[in-house]
């Protein structure tokens, strides 16, 4: 091998700690208990319907497939009297009353409350290698294309997905005059509130979040960051591209085929011994992944670079490849489902925090059904709609009962 300022990663495993202990039955809570933490934006004088009951209706309706505020009201009206009593309503509120409350809520707080509630109920599969377990959180943003605010401005949300359970732990609203970068720290705080600790957690994100401030904020919370490196960080990008990759042995290679496509992904990872190390705060490794794809006799090749704050012994190439692929889950398992199943881009919510609130309810529905073992969310929504009493029983139970 030629002389190089880098060393290839060793392939010896290192213990990184056991997974967090499972939540005990005594820590489970029903939905009403969780919703009691959401502050009521209404004037206390003249309140006719408890906020927790209205929120319970909204959550259950979206779990049963309601895709708009009007559909939430319709779902409630279709229930029998006994079902409405179980939801805490002795009479039916108007569609306008429900809409007025939901569009005035603190959407970011509601997302954290519902993310925490789902997390306490989720059944986690035991890791295959407990000594190599790491909690991986994917961060990604989404524009609600149909929702418009004053002046035609669009609503943009930044979310954090627990890639183990499929639960959106937190979601924050991006200021219409800004971008995702300033709300990254508030998102970390919201995830910390839900999880209780970020120690050892790995956050994976796209190139927009390859920011020095983000790396420092993640490290300050005892967590780790893995981000793509592109042209928005020209110095770092040039450094990673200039490394002698041909001299570095392949750390991991996977091959997949299906749907008429063959794909090979090759990972190389190195640590840097150049003065000052990798030109990014807390970065311990540089990673290159090469994707070769053949579809209908047409071949393409793509190379991507990443920086990760975990040292070689704590993040082997096979693990790095797995974490990179998990970053896609928030797009494939959440955003795509919201667009296709809930037709989110066609929903023209315009008032107050309504667009973010309804997006949070959709996240909750997707996470709920995934934690119950459903992979076809559309089918799960239809089943929940047919079995409304079972659904109400499940969400009000203090145990993770499926419906």
UniProtKB/TrEMBL annotation:
<dbReference type="InterPro" id="IPR047647">
    <property type="entry name" value="ISAs1_transpos"/>
</dbReference>
<dbReference type="InterPro" id="IPR032806">
    <property type="entry name" value="YbfD_N"/>
</dbReference>
<feature type="transmembrane region" description="Helical">
    <location>
        <begin position="51"/>
        <end position="76"/>
    </location>
</feature>
<dbReference type="InterPro" id="IPR002559">
    <property type="entry name" value="Transposase_11"/>
</dbReference>
<protein>
    <submittedName>
        <fullName>Transposase YbfD/YdcC</fullName>
    </submittedName>
</protein>
<feature type="domain" description="H repeat-associated protein N-terminal">
    <location>
        <begin position="33"/>
        <end position="118"/>
    </location>
</feature>
<keyword id="KW-1133">Transmembrane helix</keyword>
<dbReference type="InterPro" id="IPR051698">
    <property type="entry name" value="Transposase_11-like"/>
</dbReference>
<dbReference type="Pfam" id="PF13808">
    <property type="entry name" value="DDE_Tnp_1_assoc"/>
</dbReference>
<keyword id="KW-0812">Transmembrane</keyword>
<keyword id="KW-0472">Membrane</keyword>
<feature type="region of interest" description="Disordered">
    <location>
        <begin position="1"/>
        <end position="33"/>
    </location>
</feature>
<feature type="domain" description="Transposase IS4-like">
    <location>
        <begin position="136"/>
        <end position="354"/>
    </location>
</feature>
<dbReference type="Pfam" id="PF01609">
    <property type="entry name" value="DDE_Tnp_1"/>
</dbReference>
């Amino acid at each position: 091998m030629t002389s190089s300022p880098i060393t290839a990663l060793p392939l010896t495993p290192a213990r990184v700690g056991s997974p967090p202990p499972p939540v005990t039955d005594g820590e489970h809570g029903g939905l009403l208990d969780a919703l009691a933490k959401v502050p009521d934006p209404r004037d206390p004088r003249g309140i006719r319907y408890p906020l927790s009951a209205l929120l319970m209706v909204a959550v259950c309706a979206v779990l049963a497939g309601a895709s708009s505020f009007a559909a939430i009201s319709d779902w409630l009206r279709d229930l029998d009297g006994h079902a409405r009593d179980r939801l805490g309503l002795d009479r039916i509120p108007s569609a306008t009353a429900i809409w007025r409350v939901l569009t005035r809520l603190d959407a970011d707080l509601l997302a954290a409350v519902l993310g925490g509630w789902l997390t306490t109920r989720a059944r986690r599969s035991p890791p295959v290698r407990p000594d190599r377990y790491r909690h991986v959180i994917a961060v990604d943003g989404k524009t609600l294309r149909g929702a418009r605010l004053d002046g035609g401005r669009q609503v943009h949300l930044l979310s954090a997905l627990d890639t183990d359970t499929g639960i959106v732990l937190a979601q924050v609203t991006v200021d219409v005059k800004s971008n995702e970068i300033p709300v990254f720290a508030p998102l970390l705080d919201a995830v910390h509130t839900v999880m209780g600790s970020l120690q050892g957690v790995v956050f994976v994100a796209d190139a927009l979040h390859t920011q020095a401030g983000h790396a420092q904020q993640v490290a300050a919370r005892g967590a780790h960051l893995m981000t793509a490196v592109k042209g928005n960080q020209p110095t770092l990008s040039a450094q990673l591209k200039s490394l002698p990759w041909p001299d570095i042995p392949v750390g991991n290679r996977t091959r997949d085929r299906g749907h008429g496509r063959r794909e090979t992904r090759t990972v190389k990872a190195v640590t840097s011994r150049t003065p000052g190390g990798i030109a990014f705060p807390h970065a311990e490794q540089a990673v290159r992944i090469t994707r070769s794809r053949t579809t209908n006799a047409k071949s393409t090749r793509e190379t991507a670079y990443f920086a990760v704050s975990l040292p070689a012994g704590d993040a082997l190439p096979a693990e790095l490849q797995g974490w990179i692929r998990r970053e896609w889950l928030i797009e494939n398992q959440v955003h795509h489902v919201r667009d296709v199943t809930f037709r989110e881009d066609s929903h023209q919510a315009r008032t107050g925090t309504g667009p973010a609130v309804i997006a949070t309810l959709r996240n909750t529905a997707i996470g709920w059904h995934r934690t119950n073992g459903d992979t076809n969310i559309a089918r799960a929504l239809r089943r929940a709609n047919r079995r409304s009493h079972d659904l109400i029983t499940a969400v009000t139970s203090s145990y993770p009962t499926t419906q």
